[in-house]
Amino acid sequence: MQIFxxxxxxxxxxxxxAASRELATKYxxxxxILHLQAVVIAMIVASPFVHxxxxxxxxGVPYNHTEASCFDDTTLCPFEDGLRFLPCAGICYNPExxxxxxxxxxxxxxxxxxFYICGPTALYDPALYxxxxxxxxxxxxxxxPSLPCGEACYDPSEYICNGSTLILNPxxxxxxxxxxxxxxxxxxxxxxxxxxxxxSSGLYGDTCQPE
Length: 211
Prior knowledge:
Blueprint: E1 2-3, E2 9-10, H1 14-55, E3 57-58, E4 61-62, E5 68-71, E6 75-80, E7 83-84, E8 86-88, E9 91-93, E10 98-101, E11 104-107, E12 116-118, E13 122-124, E14 129-132, E15 136-141, E16 144-145, E17 147-149, E18 152-154, E19 159-162, E20 165-168, E21 183-185, E22 190-192, E23 199-201, E24 208-210
Antiparallel strand pairs: 1-2, 3-4, 5-6, 6-7, 8-9, 10-11, 12-13, 14-15, 15-16, 17-18, 19-20, 21-22, 23-24
Pfam families: Carb_bind
Protein name: Endo-1,3(4)-beta-glucanase 1 carbohydrate binding domain-containing protein
Keywords: Membrane, Transmembrane, Transmembrane helix
């Protein structure tokens, strides 16, 4: 029996050696498959990153998805203080304070259920939903609205709508920056929303401050 470095021993049993080689070959094949899968996943993730960084346009106008959202390829609404503004007949509004009904912007308190019209007959509570194009309702998650893409609703922290196609959001998720109010309430609950990295609830607990 021959002694090898690091304390390993080589056995002269041919069956054991053959089994060892077969096992090594098996694991090598598994490694190759996993490596190939990792490369494919990296390509899939990298592709929307390049696409999102270089080719996003809204009505032919280039824009940055970390600063604005595009609706119907016609309207750009700003992304300010961790909140994405929504369109109503081409005008952008704050969805935490106002609602869109019949192409008209109205205020709401959020302290009790309120119902507005979306489309011909649908009624909705603006504390729980947002109305788009007069006929599409998208839910709010802890008061933060999801956005429309074609006939679907999506989370802008995870995806970007390019035309009517969803692509992966290559950047960090939406978050509330320094001094932004990150506690919002509807008529049922209050929610503490995510501050950006390095920030947390301030002295009074309602704005994002350095940790």
